[in-house]
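[Discussion] Sanity-checking designs against the backbone

I'm trying to build intuition for which residues belong where. Below is a structure token string of 134 positions. I'd appreciate it if someone posts a full sequence so I can compare it with mine line by line.
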């Protein structure tokens, strides 16, 4: 499991999903410049300073349900639907920011203070986004 940067003191819980989706990197030579697939791995880490009354950061069932909803949105799809104005491509960084926003809407009120997302497009390459919830 990759090492996450050390945050302020607190508790963390996380999980991972995998799925296949496609994208294109415009104006790039070779396979990356045409529509191609990646077997993505999406890791999430939620944190908070103190555990809730049940001894949890966030119920893993809630986190899993949010990730299942995300997978339904992207599995087997061309990720260009995530592209916003001013972006020329859906990079792993852009994808991570979108995934964070999607998951944040599902996790507000679930107890976590912050959420970090990493999107891996290979065994060694990823992009990420982290921010506070709420």
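Best answer:
Here's mine. Compare freely.
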């Amino acid at each position: 499991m990759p090492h996450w940067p050390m945050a302020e003191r607190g508790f963390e819980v996380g999980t991972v999903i995998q799925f296949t989706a496609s994208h294109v990197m415009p104006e790039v030579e070779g396979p990356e410049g045409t529509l191609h697939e990646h077997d993505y791995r999406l890791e999430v880490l939620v944190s908070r300073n103190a555990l809730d009354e049940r001894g949890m950061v966030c119920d893993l069932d809630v986190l899993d349900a949010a990730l299942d909803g995300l997978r339904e949105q992207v599995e087997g799809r061309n990720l260009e639907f995530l592209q916003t104005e001013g972006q020329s491509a859906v990079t792993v960084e852009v994808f991570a920011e979108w995934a964070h926003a999607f998951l944040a809407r599902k996790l507000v009120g679930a107890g976590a203070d912050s959420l970090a997302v990493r999107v891996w497009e290979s065994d060694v390459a990823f992009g990420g986004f982290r921010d506070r919830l709420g």
